[in-house]
Amino acid sequence: MDHAPKNTLERWLTGPRIGTLPSPSSLPAPKLSFEFFPPKNEKLEAELWSCIRRLEPLGPRFVSVTYGAGGSTRARTHDTVTRLVQDTSLTPAAHLTCVGATREEVDEVAREYWAAGVRHIVALRGDPPAGASQYTPHPGGYAQAEDLVRGLRRIADFDISVGAYPETHPAALSADADLDFFKRKMDAGANRAITQYFFDTDVYLRFLDRCLAAGITLPIVPGIMPVSNFASVKRFSAMCGASVPSWLEKLFEGLEDDEATRRMVAATVAAEQVRILQANGVDEFHFYTLNRSDLTYAIAHILGARPAAAA
Ligand code: FAD
User: Fold this and answer.
1) Which residues participate in catalysis according to the annotation?
2) Dihedral of alpha carbons 74, 77, 79, 85, sign
3) Fold that domain 24-302 belongs to in CATH
4) What are 94-107's pLDDT values in tens digits?
5) Does the C-beta of 172 come closer than 6 Å to ligand 1?
6) With a 6 A CB cut-off, is 73 part of the ligand 1 pocket?
7) Sequence ranges of the domains in the chain
8) pTM passes above 0.90
9) Are 238 and 267 in contact (CB under 8 A)?
10) Using the 8-state DSSP alphabet, how is residue 73 labeled?
């Protein structure tokens, strides 16, 4: 048929067959992890802890705390992670980057984490500090995440996660070169990868195919970003190389001043994304919570996660 479908019946005859998604209760309970950023002031700290307390009963495998660009949140990340060890039942993971520090300084931070009972590090190269457009390795530092993973392996038996880029890291020479470097992080001793967020599920599923073909065998956990503020997600996506499909932009059109509807749309979009992934056999999800619990809680619930007491 060489013309656009005119009506529902024509669309049905010519469109793809998607089938029914299985009910969440027929699938294994998802493994969840939640990402937070360290708070800048007391008000944000209160918000973060109310978010942590709300999500804690969902029993995530781990919760991670980011490390500000250029290592700018070193103390705040450390404080948040150690409080997670001391005051909660959660397993924290500390993000650690190579930026702006010698190997000895980075090793020292890792040793402090180990001594404080932190066993999981998310090992990253890191983004350049504010104002710098390009990444420059510190002369005495770890140059890339791969080197950091090797360094951590020498320090202690950490559980190590690394970043992965379904749409290719924006600074990569090519998609294949990026996969090679990803594989080198696995060979250096990473236990799992967490992906940059993406909005088209096909992008992630195709990435898994490419990883398998490249001999990458570690778990690749999809990073899920519930879009609470479309304008800021669009800005951030341009920097981190995540594409924003036009269908997503259309969904948020006209909702600039209507946060309540925006959040309902955000939950619906993310729920659809995770359900399609779940139907494709994905049972691990890492949520970029942005320190707000409502969307993450709702989406985790749709996936079949229930608070420990209720379960
Ligand atoms: P790498 O794996 O080291 O790769 C970076 C680039 O260099 C890629 O293009 C790669 O192909 C290339 N490359 C790798 N090795 C070599 C080599 N030997 N020679 C030449 N090129 C090479 N940033 C923060 O600052 N703080 C955070 O807390 C933080 N958390 C994140 C969490 C997740 C899940 C993800 C996906 C990203 C996070 N980031 C964070 C962003 C991350 O720091 C940036 O994406 C950064 O630009 C790359 O980090 P990486 O560890 O993936 O780098």
Assistant:
1) 35
2) negative
3) TIM Barrel (3.20.20)
4) 999 999 999 999 99
5) yes
6) no
7) 24-302
8) yes
9) no
10) T
